[in-house]
Amino acid sequence: MTANCAVIVAKDVLEAKAFRAEVISKGAEALEFRLDSFSTLPDDFSFFAADLPTIATFRSSSDEDRKDVFVHALNAGADYVDIEADSVLRDQFPKDHVICSYHDFEKTPTMEEILLIFKDLLTSGIPKAAFMVRGPSDLLTIYDTAMHLRGMNQPFILIGMGDAGEVTRIRADELGSLFNYCSVRLELASAPGQITLEETLRIGKDPVITAITGYPLTHTFSPEIQNAALKAAKISGRYVKIPAASRELDFIPAILKKYRITGMNVTIPHKEKIIPLLQKIDPLAKSAGAVNTIRNTPNGLEGFNTDILGLAASLASVNMVLNDAKVLIIGAGGAARAAVAYLSRVKANISITNRTYSRAENLAHEFGASAVRIEELKPDYAIILNATPAGMSGFENVSPVPITILTKDCVVMDMIYDPEETPLLKDAKAAGVKATICGKTMLIEQAAAAFTIWTGLQPDRAAMKKAFEERTV
Ligand code: NAP
Question: Which of the ends of the chain has fewer CB neighbours closer than 10 A, N or C?
Answer without folding.
Answer: C
